[in-house]
Amino acid sequence: MIRHNFLYVCVIAGLFFTGCEKDSPASIEEETQEFTGRSTWKIIQQDILDQSCTGCHTVGTSFAEQSGLILTADVAYSQLIDRVPHNQVAIDDGLELVGAEGLSSLYKSYLWEKINAPDKDHFYADHPFYGAIMPLGLDFLTNGQLEFIRQWIVAGAPDSGVVADSTILQDTVRYEDFLFEPLALPESGIQYHIEPFEVQPNSEVEFFMRTTGDTSGPVYISRYELMMRPNSHHYILYGFSNSTPAALLPPEGVVRPIRDENGNYILSTFLSMQYHVFGLGTQWRRLDYSLPPGVALYYPNVHGFDHNPHYYNYSDTTIIGEVYVNVHMVDPSEVERVAHILQIGDNNFYLPKGQVTTVVEEKYFDQTLYVFELFSHAHELNTEFAIEIAGGERDGELVYISYDFQHPPILELDPPLVINPGEGFRLIATYDNWRDYDVSFGFLSTDEMMLLFGKYYTD
């Protein structure tokens, strides 16, 4: 079911750059000067809205009447800030066009939902009545434009001042829609392919499979890519603790389901799970994640890796699950800092039927942490997942929030978030148990979880 593709390639510097032109220092300076003296909002208006949005969102157009939104320079700011959308479903979901509350406003922003093309899969699957991704009929906004707007919203969406780095706009790459297809082989690393498997109607499939012999020794992982067929709940790549007893080490290449055909948990699978070391994973169908320069995840690779796909299917037809994973590796000489996995959670909570329940969990640290990634994990009853700094002078400061249990945002922090000794994280997860039975922690998508994952390095 799983295939390994090895490709270690040495690339001579400059070999593939023939015919490419790099911007000269003069041209870069000219681009930078172009933004000098303008506020972040003015740049958004003149370089994004005026170029990509006002063709439709102008007084007198049918698009403006249907959306109730004018984006010309004379009224755009007042049209966006603290206004509800002209879409009843979005109003019912508690969205504003753009709020002024910082990070929490980002994931309640109808504007952000409508322009965030890289999250297009979530947009159409989870919000079928929100309309279409904007701008309609034109190219998606560039990655730089999206990041510029994102930083502006996170900063409170001010109408004056500079709150985002204008050099971000030099990133002119645009999201391209994708179908499920094999990933290209990594230049230095390994590709795993979890071959197609069936997920029967009204069921879930979750299993583990161990691979060994992947490399000749310890590995340093600097980047990973994942591509999954639709209806994936998650994919996780685990390592095994060096202390894993030989008797509990699973055989190579054998599918180990988490449940039997009657839905009962399989004890032998759970016995091996207690020796797992979380490696990498996602709930996103397509992910390409790079650690910061000079930072890598380290694995001794004594016992190989354990692959964990989870698919759900609550339709009346059989679907197919399939996963491609690329693990990019670097030479130890290129590693300046070793990354560590941050994992905090609570598996001892209880959600009474018909009630809204908020669960709080805290964890503190006795050393300095430089956190460069955060993301949450919960299931379908979760309505909000907030992360605050706990302890110290910043106690209660909001650093992460998610309103989307299926595709929680992956927050990349550059520079890293510094957690000082005696400080930590406070997880605040709210659940609306609309079912007619009580719910607690469990591994089905219809059970619940409360987990924070991330990556950090230390001094």
Protein architecture, described:
The chain has 10 helices and 21 strands. With 459 residues, the chain is α+β, with helices and mostly antiparallel strands. The chain folds into 3 domains: 136 residues, no CATH class; 158 residues, Jelly Rolls (Sandwich), CATH 2.60.120; 117 residues, Jelly Rolls, CATH 2.60.120.230. Strands 1, 2, 4, 8, 9, 11, 12, 15, 18 and 21 form a 10-stranded mixed beta sheet that branches. The protein has a 5-stranded antiparallel beta sheet with strand order 6-3-10-5-7. A 4-stranded antiparallel beta sheet has the order 14-19-16-17, with no helix packed on it. Helix 2 crosses helix 9. The chain starts with a strand and ends with a strand.
What is the second-level CATH architecture of the largest domain? Sandwich
What is the helix tally? 10
Number of domains: 3
Structural class: alpha+beta
Rg, Å, rounded: 24 Å
End-to-end distance, in Å? 41 Å
Shape: globular
Output mean pLDDT: 87
Helix coverage percent of residues?
A: 10-25%
Tell me the strand percentage band: 25-35%
**Major β-sheet profile:** 10 strands, mixed
Spans of 5+ residues with little confidence (pLDDT < 50)? 1-34
How many strand elements?
21
In CATH terms, what is the fold-level topology of the largest domain?
A: Jelly Rolls
CATH class of the largest domain: Mainly Beta
